Amino acid sequence: MNIAGRRWHLLLFRWALMLLLLTVAGGLGYALLSLPEQAVGLSEQVRVNMEMSGVQNPVTAVLLNFRGYDTLLEMAVLLAALLGVWSLGAAEAHRRIDPQPVLSLLVGGLAPMMILMAGYLLWVGAYAPGGAFQAGSVLAAAGILLLLSSKRFPVRLMGWPLRVVLVIGLGVFTAVGVTLLCVSGGFLQYPSGLAGALILFIEAAATLSIGVTLAALFLGGRPQAGPYR
């Protein structure tokens, strides 16, 4: 293909992409303008079915039970975003520096407290505002704080253990849904007596994956297995 042909194909691709984006934008605009001025909402249905949800917090009930599909897809999108960043190449190797005593003392005190706070947010999510995403965010903040203080993570954890933790949240979520599909015939339709325990199990795995994924995104690339320079 000559240069003129390549330019023509590139121009055609750009116009097709622009047309697709305009179509999507138009559809979203039409959907937004078509919304009723006073929406009834589903809060009453959520309140009526709270007893069968397995939790007492309506937000957790919606995200992990009534609309579990949405949360499952959010986990998949978060993992896909990390894979996209990793595809750009390895993260830049930072030089190992000895942190100042004040910084070491601060990180040594804050990181354990943040991990405990993440565990608390995970547990309290069944009764009050909290849950996997809040706990995972705090856990990621602890990891980022350790990275900023030049803490060195064991090299053996940068291989398959890291990848297992990254996919365990989505894997457990999917495994529970498939198991319920085989047992009861409904994907992510929890039995009333096991709903609370299954939600806590899913959120515990999701917390680890979310925390590690967000911390890995902070690196801006695929972690290198080698030591600091």
Topology:
Blueprint: H1 3-33, H2 43-48, H3 58-66, H4 68-86, H5 101-124, H6 132-148, H7 160-184, H8 195-219
Helix pairs in contact: 3-4, 4-7, 4-8, 5-6, 6-8, 7-8
Would you kindly provide a written description of the structure presented here, covering whatever features stand out?
- With 229 residues, the protein is mostly helical.
- It has one domain.
- It has helices at residues 3-33, 43-48, 58-66, 68-86, 101-124, 132-148, 160-184, 195-219.
- Helix 4 (68-86) runs antiparallel to helix 7 (160-184).
- The N and C termini lie far apart (46 Å).
- The model has no long low-confidence stretch (mean pLDDT 84).
In short:
With 229 residues, the chain is an all-alpha fold.
The biggest sheet, with number of strands, parallel, antiparallel or mixed sense and barrel status, is: none
Beta content: under 5%
Count structural domains: 1
How many strands? Answer: 0
Gap from first CA to last CA: 46 Å
List the defining traits of the structure above:
single chain; 229 residues; mainly alpha
